[in-house]
Amino acid sequence: MRTDAIVLSRHGGPKELVLVQVELAEPGPGEILLRHAAINVNFHDTYVRTGQYRTLALPGIPGLDAVGVVEAVGPGVTHLAVGDRAAWISGAYGGYAARRILNADLAFRLPDGIGDAQAAASLMKTFTVRMLVKDSHRVQAGQTVLVHAAAGGVSQLLCQWCKALGARVIGTVSSEAKAEVARACGADEIIFYRSEDFVARVDALTDGAGVAAVYDSVGRDTFAGSLRCLDYSGTLVNFGQSSGPVEPFRPSDLAVRSLSVTRPILFHKIRTPEQLRTYVDETFDAFDRGVVRPIDPDILPLSRAADAHRILEAGESRGGIVLAPDQ
């Protein structure tokens, strides 16, 4: 069987994402054949494409997560059947394809209440947020947290979940349009980082106390300032590097207020079926209770993966982009 796929053969710009046809085998023991309906585009994918992350062997198919329909199951698969809608998340890549063979333990059935595009755009982001608010720093009622790039896809959901837990949320954004998005997601205070010193503004908004946690997906440009925003025993959660990797720093820099820094990776938190099931159950419970709202993404054909990367890197996404293969 042959299927359409986006193959990255060398690191570089979006034009390196090339649509080709690749061969697929039949699913073996413990595997499924999944026909993708919606493929999530992550900022992580842009790091892989440029070579900032060298975690995909080239030539290779990018893509960490997708949603589709099970077309065949291999021997030993019992929790999924042909015709089931299923989602998967994996650091083994392979998502930018119309069909793929997948280890069935990585996939889980989708409930009827969420659409394919919504699920593809929201699940990995919401898994990430669950990790951020419970594993990386346990957000508690009455705390104040700072969320950088608060109108971004993950950060929109992060603001919502922090607010639902009773935290006061300060968000940094680049424009009034993005401020409106962040406010709608629960941000209590907005800092325009292009025209304001976010460290000074946090100091003023907290009467010099600082925040319990900073959620920083920006990296190099904000890291040092983020440390200066923390309260005693505060935690800097660095979960991305859109401005570039963080420069080396001295552990003694943390002694000023007994600070902590963590760099969590989602795949380390869902290594076993039991861990994955916890994240699945808590994520769908968060949707059901209205803690977070699924994202309504922009949808592009699989053949326009390069355009999706351009939109994402230009900061022009509404919060999510998914690719839809031709059926």
Automatic annotation (TrEMBL):
Gene3D superfamilies: Medium-chain alcohol dehydrogenases, catalytic domain, NAD(P)-binding Rossmann-like Domain
A matching Pfam family: ADH_zinc_N
CDD domains to which the protein is assigned, alphabetical: QOR2 (cd05286)
Alphabetic keyword roster: NADP, Oxidoreductase
Chain segments annotated as transmembrane: none
InterPro entries to which the protein is assigned, alphabetical: ADH-like_C, ADH-like_N, ER, GroES-like_sf, NAD(P)-bd_dom_sf, QOR-like
Superkingdom, taxonomy of origin: Bacteria
Sequence ranges assigned to domain Enoyl reductase (ER) in this UniProt record: 12-323
Protein name: Quinone oxidoreductase
Organism: Sphingomonas colocasiae
